């Protein structure tokens, strides 16, 4: 038995000696960032965190907040689940997100819709262009089959178990973990119906900025895409930055891009009239 295990005082002293240790993958408290968009004040930052390879993160964001995700090293996969923070039984509906917009490929100007026809998030900017609204995330069984290890506490964590941990922090359970979208790793559908993965790795620094159209809970799992063909478990850190911002106005270009989108925003506005 080591000295720290045998002596509680030594364990305490060791733990306290770690104060001030900084590693790449951790939240920054208070949140700071030196690369905010023009016009955004550092006082408005509410979240700055690097999510480790195989890690997860979750946060409640207020209506109008912006969430910027950066694939800092070119091989991140941001599995994303979204809930209405006030009523988490309302959550991202991937099928309606695709069906209502007549488009299965996400990018700038697209909306992430709830199962009640409201906009949870809109994609304000996107320099990646490779996203996935078809495949969902990995689980213990898929990782076991591919990598020989699938446990949440093992060397090759899977997306579903990471979502479970994130959801649990908001009092949510296994039944609340719903199909996700994947950002930075994409798929296309060939003419014969085959799913064609777009896995990369890609150039580092690609980013996506999401705008919260309601008060939302976001849960992010940074695990390899379920269709990643590489035999090795491969993923790199993902950076998340969020800041307060204005609520979408009636003349917003994303809001007015399509009749379907206008209706979804009207549903949001009706919700906030209560």
Structure description:
The protein has 274 residues and is an alpha+beta fold. The chain has one domain (43-271). The chain is 19% helix and 26% strand. It is built from six helices and 13 strands. It has helices at 3-6, 8-17, 94-100, 140-147, 159-168, 259-271, and strands spanning 45-51, 56-61, 66-71, 78-84, 111-113, 119-126, 131-132, 181-183, 186-189, 195-198, 206-212, 216-222, 238-243. The strands form three sheets. A six-stranded antiparallel sheet has the order 1-13-3-11-6-5. It has a five-stranded antiparallel sheet with strand order 2-12-4-8-7, with helices on one face. Strand 5 (111-113) and strand 6 (119-126) form a beta hairpin. The relative contact order is 0.24.
């Amino acid at each position: 038995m080591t000295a720290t295990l045998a002596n509680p005082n030594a364990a305490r002293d060791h733990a306290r000696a770690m104060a001030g240790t900084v590693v790449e993958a951790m939240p920054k408290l208070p949140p700071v960032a030196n690369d905010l968009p023009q016009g955004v004040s550092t006082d408005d930052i509410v979240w700055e965190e690097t999510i480790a390879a195989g890690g997860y993160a979750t946060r409640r964001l207020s209506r109008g907040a912006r969430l910027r995700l950066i694939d800092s090293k070119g091989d991140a996969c941001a599995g994303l689940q979204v809930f209405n923070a006030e009523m988490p039984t309302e959550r991202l509906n991937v099928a309606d997100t695709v069906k209502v917009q007549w488009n299965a490929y996400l990018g700038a100007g697209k909306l992430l819709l709830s199962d009640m026809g409201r906009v949870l998030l809109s994609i304000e900017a996107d320099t990646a262009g490779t996203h996935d609204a078809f495949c969902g995330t990995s689980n213990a069984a898929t990782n076991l089959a591919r990598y020989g290890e699938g446990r949440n506490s093992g060397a090759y964590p899977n997306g579903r178990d990471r979502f479970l941990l994130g959801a649990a922090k908001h009092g949510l359970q296994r039944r609340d973990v719903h199909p996700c979208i994947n950002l930075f790793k994409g798929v296309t559908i060939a003419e014969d119906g085959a799913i064609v993965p777009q896995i990369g790795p890609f150039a580092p620094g690609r980013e996506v900025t999401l705008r919260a159209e309601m008060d939302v809970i976001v849960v992010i799992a940074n695990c390899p895409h379920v269709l990643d063909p590489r035999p090795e478990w491969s993923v790199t850190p993902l950076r998340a930055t969020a800041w307060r911002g204005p609520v979408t106005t009636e003349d917003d270009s994303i809001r007015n891009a399509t009749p379907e989108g206008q209706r979804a925003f009207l549903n949001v506005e009706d919700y906030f009239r209560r």
